[in-house]
Amino acid sequence: MIELIVSDMDGTLLNNKLAVSDTNREAIEYAERKGIKFMVATGRGYTEAVPALKEAGISCPMITVNGGQLFDEAGNLIANIGIDKARIRRILDFVRSKGLYAEIVTTKGVFSDDKVGRIETMTTLLQTTNPDTTFKMALVLALSRLELLNIHYVNHFDEVLDDDSSQILKVLVFSNIGQPELQVIREEFETDEELIITSSFFNNIEINHVEAQKGIAVERFAKEMGISMENVMTIGDNFNDASMLKNAGVSFAMGNAEEGVKAIAKYVTSTNNENGVADAIFRAINEKL
Questions:
Q1: How far apart are CA 152 and CA 109, in angstroms?
Q2: Binning pLDDT at 50, 70 and 90, where does residue 157 land?
Q3: Residue 265 near residue 284, CB atoms below 8 Å
Q4: Chain centre to alpha carbon of residue 271
Q5: What are phi and psi of 200, to 5 degrees?
Q6: Do residues 188 and 94 lie in contact, with contact meaning Cβ atoms separated by under 8 Å?
Q7: Residue 10 DSSP class
Q8: Is the pTM value of this prediction over 0.85?
């Protein structure tokens, strides 16, 4: 019997306009009335993830930064796993040498050293995932969404790296061309045993400490709650969800998921624009998966 449902956000719980649908929200409420706990596991930092959930009226425990942090329902930090700053400097230097845009997620929030690059990246993502949307409309939507996110802009990342009171949790690297242009970053750092490189969208790669994985964080949380992994259900769409899809008793890949992710999950649901999370929840409960 399922006791815990863990859902990814982008491309999963959120539709292509980066919002939680009423249908998904109602399905979560239905599961909770059945005594099933719900939580999200996202690559976003805490301050990036909260607005979309709050907008939908969802309050739940959260795995953020791909497993770099774990928060309880009240927003209290339970666990924290970061990357040493010497490695971060090497990563950022290499990214700059390739002319790519990057962001860093820290214990004090998400930081960017290029506001225009941030807007361009979000606009391209929204236009690509919503083909009927014009560039102008995608730009308007990007600006409205960015206003909700607590992004800190600095002139240079050294301002963040020189702050001894903060810890770096993740580096995101973006390319509007996509994975072919990002491959050089992946190849440069994938042999480092202290790091794990995943992706949550066609236009990014995410670099975390090797222990900061969603699957590890889900297992940690389930153990603390006294829940067997056989009674955990996970839902995701991309390769940063792979570790939690592999380890759960019941796992769903979204209809819009990468084919390799679908091969890992036990079941496939509809797309994120078709309330795939709700469909998975209702199926799992009604069919007693």
A1: 7
A2: very high
A3: no
A4: 17
A5: -120, -10
A6: yes
A7: I
A8: no
